[in-house]
Specification:
- The complex is a heterodimer of chains A (111) and B (114).
- In chain A, strand 7 and strand 8 form a beta hairpin.
- Chain A contains no helices and twelve strands.
- Chain A is mostly beta strands and 111 residues long.
- Chain A starts with a strand and ends with a strand.
- Chain B has no helices and eleven strands.
- Chain B is globular, with a radius of gyration of 13 Å.
- In chain B, a hairpin with a 6-residue loop joins strand 4 and strand 5.
- Helix content of chain B is 0%, strand content 49%.
- The chains are: A mainly beta (111), B mainly beta (114).
Amino acid sequence: AQTVTQSQPEMSVQEAETVTLSCTYDTSESDYYLFWYKQPPSRQMILVIRQEAYKQQNATENRFSVNFQKAAKSFSLKISDSQLGDAAMYFCAYGLSELIFGQGTTLQVKP
Amino acid sequence: DTGVSQNPRHKITKRGQNVTFRCDPISEHNRLYWYRQTLGQGPEFLTYFQNEAQLEKSRLLSDRFSAERPKGSFSTLEIQRTEQGDSAMYLCASSPAGGFYGYTFGSGTRLTVV
């Protein structure tokens, strides 16, 4: 079965510090895409960062970067210089067209 | 471009009634997806369209659920004979063909079945 596991239901970080959210997935496919989405409370899902599975180089978008380990089927998200606006639920997902999502990690940012 | 639009935002219905939701995708996007999200969980795939063709349906999509996308523009999701277990947020998303760009999500329709 295709699954995504986010083992940290909740995480907390001090403003301006760095936090890493973990994600592992299980698939027999060799070609797919990986994503992190952010869902603020009562607001819509927003794409944070994306990665092509065939690319070795880890994706970076401003303060957001990933550590993609294809053999280990791991796709963690690092948020540097955390800001209050980063507080949200974060979902890891993978797929080609249909995406499989994890259960989410709620990130709290403390001032 | 106003993004992905979903209507209504909230719907309260009595068990056994039929409900219909509408999604207007980004006009240049030819793929449209429906997902269901329950509180504290990640979205679960229901179905997706490429243009007007429904290409994939989840086993979660019982025969009480039907989706259409006439003319490849907006889409509707209908739930017949609603049950309390149907209470959830129904999310619509769209994307260009090819999966790398990821989805643009709408704000969702929250369904409460009483």
